[in-house]
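Good morning C.,

I know you're traveling, so I'll keep this short. The sequence:
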Amino acid sequence: MGMGEGYADPMPDDRWRSDPLSAADLAAFAAAVELGSVRGAADALALTQSAATKRIQRLERRVELTLLERGRFGVKPTEAGGVLYPEARRALDALTHAAVALDQLRAGSAVRLSLSASQTTGEFLVPGWLAAFRAVQPDVQARVHISNSASVVADIREGRAEIGFVEGVDALDGLQALTLQRDEIVAVVAPGHPWAGRRGVPAGALTAPGNPYVTRELGSGNRSVAAAGLAGIGIALSPTMETTSNQSIKRALLDVPGAFALLSELAVEDEVRAGTLCRLPVRGVDLHRDLKAISRRRPALSGPARGFWRALGEIAARPRP
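The tokens, ready to paste straight into the viewer:
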């Protein structure tokens, strides 16, 4: 009769569920069966022979059965040992598969980088910063969720992203932050607008009749900075149109007669260069802002996020024009 042949599957017993056999003891027993000696098992498991013997003896005491016959030329399984060995082998293989699965998950997560970015920073700056980082860490796979500054702060606080990029006035209490770049909100109009060609527009002119105001949604860093700056000099703008997209704002400026927007100068660089839109500094108010990276202090950042945060720290340390 071969090992384990002629035995029906045992009924489960609650005592084994609550206090299963030791994997370390089963490993010593299985190795001894496979190698035919306790010394061989000890060598395979990087144990002393005494330690391997103690593990096997502990297992025998636990099951209250003799599992190995000792002889001059090594060991072989008893009838009970023959029943236990295939089950022990399956259990050890399952534990090994479980450990490998976790190693693979750990390795996979080690190269994933979860980011959340406000629209202007996410569209115009984050890709370049990531490209520079991936030049030295090519295995990093970044997932960037682009929304508005308020949503980015929520993503960081609630653990949906490890590093965020904001451009607004949202409270950052309890978060760590790096100031990466200065930016300015400017008035943007179509080339045919009466303001086009001027060197700037007075803040008071923004409320003049016949100039529809097109803006981003509430929660946008762009809008919150502009609103806060203008409120400081007693100006409140009433939007004609709100949208979550910088691109739709640019389209509206071309389609809506007399329309203007307050956008980041970064967001209109290409259009200004091409002559399809005009940018004008707003005079009489400071609409500069800091573009920041943020993260939680706890838990600690993962490996790739730590590396990216260090790279962002180097950007923050550079002298600004």
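Safe travels,
E.
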